């Protein structure tokens, strides 16, 4: 290999590191905020019904605007959008750390979601452009996944340390210097191919998709405070569904759609998006509920809560880098996807069997099982999320796999929080508690609510396995050796074809 090619090869791996730093920041944000949330709730005096919106405001903005982010990257350049998004995320994080009430915190979280929606598809597209060969792309995504998992794990511990020894605001402030490091490192090392797909941004599509998703997620949230049969709840679901149906209709007719429907018609890509959405529904809800379970029922400190989640994060890393990444460029994806989602279901069933005497160790072991399954399955879903995609749709394909997970997370946070709260309240009613319940009975009610929720979560994981079994038919990848000097930058895909 010539010195010029060796230098270019070294530069792209350095660029991968700084792209992964940006992903670490996004994952760190979710982890530290989950651990800090109970303390933030006490400091800002917001209700249990509002707490889910600290998670959902971010996930909803992220999921609802990812398609926009992918398209903007295709239109104006992935590198430019990547750097802009890092700067915006830093500013939004600083605003969140300065929040004086829950409204200001929710605005900051939503802004973080907006900039993350620009960042994520740009990052994935930049990796795809830099690593066009299946084997090296799998290795690059393995590194990317490992840093992402590390970000989640570091965030769990950092969230506890910052909350316990400083205060919850540092869960937001800590993201600012990480974003600055990402910007300074990416400027000289991260490059795209300069290709632009000039098209007008589909504003009607943006509005219909975003408002439709907000309507559906708000319906789940309204069910907690108003009931499933309330007019507000049903109305939110109906309006959300109608807006999403209108979005599909508009996308089939406009000349430059936000979501070209051809992206969804390939069965393997459709399975990756739908399966990921179904499987992530339990994950976001699990983190929210278990954070409160560890701190309120088991009496763990924020630090120990973060430590209790570490085995799940570590096993997720093993699943992604040691199992999923290896399988993604060696075998057909269907068996691994189905097995991964079913392993998640097994872990959730173990959680559904908890009672008042269940030890923390048993719960952590169940979490570790879930982490192994979800890490393996998500890596394989990533590997087929751009199966046979056209280069001009690479940004949208990159956005959709993230969008499906964030939409699933928004639904999961609202739905599972609502089910857990409603089930706990119903348990108290059936046990004849009309007023203030004892601490023991409240804990029993919470455990009952969590168990009910985990059975529902397991059903979503099984549904993801069924979708994968029925739809996925991609063969094992064929390896074509990369000729020396071949830069092959015209191949744009998120993962193995």
UniProtKB/TrEMBL annotation:
Task: List residues traversing the bilayer.
Answer: 16-37, 52-69, 81-104, 110-129, 141-162, 168-189, 201-221, 227-250, 271-294, 300-324, 336-354, 360-382, 452-472
What SUPFAM superfamilies does this protein map onto? MFS general substrate transporter
Kindly indicate where the leader peptide sits in this chain.
Answer: none
- The source's domain of life comes to Bacteria
What membrane topology does this protein have? Multi-pass membrane protein
Q: Give the keywords, sorted.
A: Cell membrane, Membrane, Transmembrane, Transmembrane helix, Transport
Major facilitator superfamily (MFS) profile domain: residues covered: 15-476
Q: Where in the cell is it found?
A: Cell membrane
Q: Name one GO cellular component term.
A: plasma membrane
Q: Which organism is it from?
A: Micromonospora krabiensis
Molecular function terms from GO: transmembrane transporter activity
Checking PROSITE patterns in the record gives: MFS
Q: What protein name is recorded for this chain?
A: Drug resistance transporter, EmrB/QacA subfamily
Q: Provide the primary localization.
A: membrane
Matching InterPro entries: EmrB-like, MFS, MFS_dom, MFS_trans_sf
């Amino acid at each position: 290999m010539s010195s010029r090619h060796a230098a270019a090869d070294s530069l792209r791996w350095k660029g991968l590191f700084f792209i992964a730093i940006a992903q670490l920041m996004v994952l760190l944000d979710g982890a530290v905020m989950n651990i800090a949330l109970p303390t933030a709730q006490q400091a800002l005096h917001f209700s249990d019904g509002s707490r889910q919106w600290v998670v959902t405001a971010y996930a909803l903005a992220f999921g609802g605007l990812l398609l926009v982010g992918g398209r903007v990257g295709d239109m104006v350049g992935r590198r430019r959008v990547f750097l802009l998004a890092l700067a915006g995320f830093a500013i939004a994080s600083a605003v969140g750390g300065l929040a004086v009430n829950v409204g200001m915190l929710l605005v900051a979280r939503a802004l973080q979601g907006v900039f993350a929606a620009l960042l994520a598809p740009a990052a994935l597209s930049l990796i795809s452009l830099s690593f066009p060969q299946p084997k090296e792309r799998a290795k690059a995504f393995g590194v990317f996944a490992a840093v992402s998992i590390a970000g989640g794990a570091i965030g769990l511990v950092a969230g506890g340390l910052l909350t316990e020894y400083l205060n919850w605001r540092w869960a937001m402030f800590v993201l600012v210097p990480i974003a600055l490091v990402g910007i300074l490192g990416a400027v000289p090392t991260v490059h795209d191919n300069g290709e632009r797909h000039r098209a007008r941004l589909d504003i009607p599509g943006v509005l219909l998709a975003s408002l439709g998703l907000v309507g559906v997620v708000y319906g789940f949230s309204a069910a907690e405070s108003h009931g499933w049969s309330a007019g507000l709840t049903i109305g939110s679901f109906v309006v959300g569904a109608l807006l999403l149906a209108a979005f599909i209709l508009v996308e089939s007719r406009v000349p430059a759609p936000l979501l070209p429907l051809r992206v969804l018609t390939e069965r393997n890509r459709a399975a990756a998006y739908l399966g990921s959405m179904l499987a992530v529904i339990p994950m976001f809800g699990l983190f929210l509920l278990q954070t409160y379970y560890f701190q309120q029922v088991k009496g763990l400190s924020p630090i120990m809560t973060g430590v209790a989640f570490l085995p799940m994060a570590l096993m997720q890393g093993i699943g992604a880098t040691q199992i999923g990444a290896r399988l993604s460029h060696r075998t057909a994806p269907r068996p691994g996807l189905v097995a991964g989602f079913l392993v998640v279901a097994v872990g959730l069933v173990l959680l559904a069997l908890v009672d008042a005497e269940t030890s923390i160790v048993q719960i952590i072991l169940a979490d570790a099982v879930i982490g192994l399954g979800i890490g393996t399955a998500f890596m394989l879903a990533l590997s087929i999320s751009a199966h046979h995609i056209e280069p001009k749709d690479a940004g949208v394909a990159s956005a959709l796999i993230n969008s499906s997970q964030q939409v699933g997370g928004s639904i999961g946070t609202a739905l599972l929080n609502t089910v857990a709260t409603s089930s706990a309240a119903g348990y108290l009613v059936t046990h004849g508690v009309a007023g203030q319940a004892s601490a023991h009975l409240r804990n029993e009610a919470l455990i009952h609510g969590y168990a009910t929720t985990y059975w529902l979560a397991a059903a979503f994981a099984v549904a993801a396995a069924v979708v994968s079994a029925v739809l996925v038919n991609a063969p094992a990848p064929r390896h074509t050796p990369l000729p020396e000097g071949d830069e092959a930058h015209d191949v744009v895909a998120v993962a193995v074809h």
